[in-house]
Every structure is written in C-alpha cells, then in structure tokens.
Amino acid sequence: MQTPDRHTRWIMEAPQAVEDELTDWLMEQGATAMYREADGPCAFLAYFPPGLVPPDPSLLDRFPGVRLLRSESFDDEDWLTKSREGFGPILVGRSFYIRPLWDKAPVPEGRRAVVVNPGLAFGTGGHETTRLCMELMEELAEAGRLKTPILDIGAGTGILSLSAWMLGARGITAFDIDPDCGPAMEDFIELNGLALRGKRPFEHFVGTLEDPRVKGPYQGLLANILLETIQELLPRMAEAAAPGAWLVASGILAECQDEALVSLAVHGFRPLKVVREGDWIAILAERAG
User: Fold this and answer.
1) Where are the beta strands (DSSP E) in 14-66?
2) Please, are residues 2 and 73 in contact by the beta-carbon 8 Å criterion?
3) pLDDT tens-digit series, residues 238-263
4) How far apart are CA 236 and CA 269, in angstroms?
5) Which partner from 24, 56, 203, 228 sits 20 to 30 angstroms from 46, CA to CA?
6) CATH class of 7-83
7) Is the CATH code 3.40.630.10 the one for domain 125-287?
C-alpha cells in the first residue's frame, strides 16, 4: 500500500506498440517518470510520488499485453540509489571509457572518458548500437579515414559526434528531429567540458535531413537510427555524401542484416564491414565514386 512519505515504482511488462499510449495514461494518473530498461527483459517502469495513490492495476487491462509484474515502495534516499543501479563505467572499443556523471574513479590509462547522464532515455552509451558505432569509428581513425566534414543523423545527445571529435575529426554537424535533443546536446557538451577545455566539438540543430543547414558534401555520415528510417533517408543521404564517403549505420537488428545490406547497395553505398553485439549490428559502408 502507498504510504505518505514513500515513492511507488511499478514494474510492468509492456509491448512497445502500446508504450506511447500507456505513457500518456500513466502521466494522467500522476506518474512523474517512465522508462524502459535497456537490457532484457526490457521491463517498463513508472514512478509515482509520495502522497499519491497509484491507479487500480486492473485498469491496465485496457492496454493489450500490459501487465503489472510488481509494485515497490522506496524512500527518497533509495530513489537516488536506484537511479544509479545498473549503470557503471563501460569500456568501449580500445579507447573509450563511458562513465556516469557521478563516477569519480580514475580513467584507465589509454582511455578517453565520455561523461553521460544515465537519466536520459537516449545517447548514454548503454545500448549495443552506440558502442558498435564507436568501435567502427575507432577503426576509421586508425586507418586515417575519419575524414571530415561529418554529419550525425538522429544524433540524440551527440555522443557519436563527441566520440568522432575525440578521435580527431573536426567539422562535425549533428541533428535530430526530437526537440528535446537540442537541450540534451548542449547539456552533453557541458558534461564533458573538462575534456573539451572550452572547445566546441560539434554544431547541432533540431530538424531534418532536408534542413538547409545540411550543407554537404560530407566525407562521413553517422546514422544510429532504426533501419526503417535509414531506408527512408537513404536517397537524401546518398545526395549529401561525397564520392568515397564512409557511412556508419546502426540501429539494425541482426535478423535484418540482408535487408539492410541490399538497401545500402541499391542506393550506392558499398558495404565494407558488419559488426555485431547481441541482437544488433552496425554496418560500415562506402559511397560509390
């Protein structure tokens, strides 16, 4: 039962197809935060503040496939602890060290620290696709192929743009269609201010690939977005890419690898390498000359 001075957390099973509708309803019921776990079983969580009685769980029956797995109560101190559970430093590739903003441990020798805010729903480095893209960019840098200018499509917080900058790239532009990503990218740059030493790693805007701020031709494209979106944008991406430009594309399920490779080839991007982590892949491709 809800107590006056304690928070309540609902852990639910919820198909992604009803997530938006469920989120709207939970907010109407007074929930203050919702998110989906990045790792399996990818439960959907909702938080209710002290003093608020959560809705009757039976009302979840209106959402197909949604069920309450359990309800938990915790105090304010536990809220802070729980927000940090399950997210420690992550070693990515051969050179990156993704650390949550509260981590003060020494950075391993030879690693570049990327500071993230795990409270964000995107761009924290916690997803396989982000790590795969960073690893492919390391390979491009080592081969002397991380040429610029670079366009980061669907950038989220800008973590891939910052990673490219840390690897030596300059002339980077990042954009996303989500209005929340504008402030998120500024916050991300500020979080990494110590490493940047006053330098601005990339320019960014909220908009689409048709925006006049997309100049081109670009020597490199980053697209860590869903395959369906990549397929929709490929004609415009091909126009924006210089001959011989590289493309790092991810957000692609491994089961869709053949479909993704064919789509890239049809639009003039020759696949060079596929890397995989878990159920996800990233593809390095090159624009035909």
Assistant:
1) 33-36, 44-48
2) yes
3) 999 999 999 999 999 999 999 999 99
4) 12
5) 228
6) alpha beta
7) no
